Amino acid sequence: MTDVIEADGLHRTYSGGFEAVRGISFTVPRGEIFALLGTNGAGKTSTVELLEGLARPSGGTVRVLGHDPYTERAAVRPRIGMMLQEGGFPSDLTVAETVRMWAGCTTHARPTAEALELVGLTGRAGVRVKQLSGGERRRLDLALALLGRPEVLFLDEPTTGLDAEGRRDTWELVRRLRGTGATVLLTTHYLEEAEALADRLAIMHRGRIVTAGTPAEVTASRPARIRFVLPEGTGPERLPLGLRAAADGRRVEIRTHALQDALGELLGWAAGEGVRLEGLDARSASLEEAFLEIASRADDPPTADASAAAAASSSAPAASPASAVSPTAPTAADPEEVR
Ligand SMILES: Nc1ncnc2c1ncn2[C@@H]1O[C@H](COP(=O)(O)OP(=O)(O)OP(=O)(O)O)[C@@H](O)[C@H]1O
Description:
By secondary structure, the protein is of the alpha/beta class. 31% of the residues lie in helices and 24% in strands. It has a six-stranded mixed beta sheet with strand order 5-6-7-3-8-9, with helices on both faces. Strands 1, 2, 4 and 14 form a four-stranded antiparallel beta sheet that branches. The chain has a four-stranded antiparallel beta sheet with strand order 11-12-10-13, with helices on one face. Helix 3 (95-103) crosses helix 4. It starts with a strand and ends with a strand.
């Protein structure tokens, strides 16, 4: 499969010297949905803007559809769709007028009715933008991003502000677009969104990719968890040796990479001893746990990023130690950003 997005050792340093993106590398093949996750301020939007060609990296290279999206903008722009975190529309235009205005600047634009239908805004065509709800504005944003039938779609938090139904409609639409061969890179704060949609994902923290891979690969490295409460009079010391994990009084939590074995041992012991395990709950690791563990980390040394991400996904290599520079060491000067 051809890689339509290639980021190699990307850095972005803002004026003032703050390095928001610290040497990240990943590739996205054609027809894949790739999600960038991370805490607030992790550098997702800063990265997406580099991929969209809205800013020039201060280090490293970006290729979208084989071109540099910043220096070869004319070659890339007609083939990509962008949904920024905050779209700015003239608020007095109606929804349909907004789409028509945008269509005027788009090569081979979809008909207005088709674009509105895709995002479920047909019934709101005559409504002024200022009267739309936040979720409807997000959908209008999406309609504009889809107008030019893009081969590559960048969606920065596409479902923020949408209700549960709107979110699911958007997921369905994104899947349909993938079905037509589009490549989608999205950022999201919703872990279930990444889990439901993404073929692969990367979790960013403080400007670096800490882990990357399929949702299953990312969670596989985390231990599963068994929780239960022992009955009165049964102390955790009575548990089989291998299961005497972190116990807080009668409350027991066991973390294990062999869930079936541990659960089998526990249930066998409970049956043999006639012990009832209250509130027994066994679950595999979730993306949320992986995310929270990463989010709680202090600023890791760059080398830790490289090994973690490389282990998680060979196709999404992390920053090489050589390319990870000090956050206070900008490479050049520029009025708006250090390039
Ligand atoms: N123009 C700017 N000048 C200086 N610093 C900036 C600028 N834009 C963003 N930053 C900083 O860069 C860091 C990364 O911001 P970015 O918006 O890329 O993060 P994010 O992962 O998209 O966060 P969020 O989830 O909150 O949208 C933040 O610390 C932010 O304050």
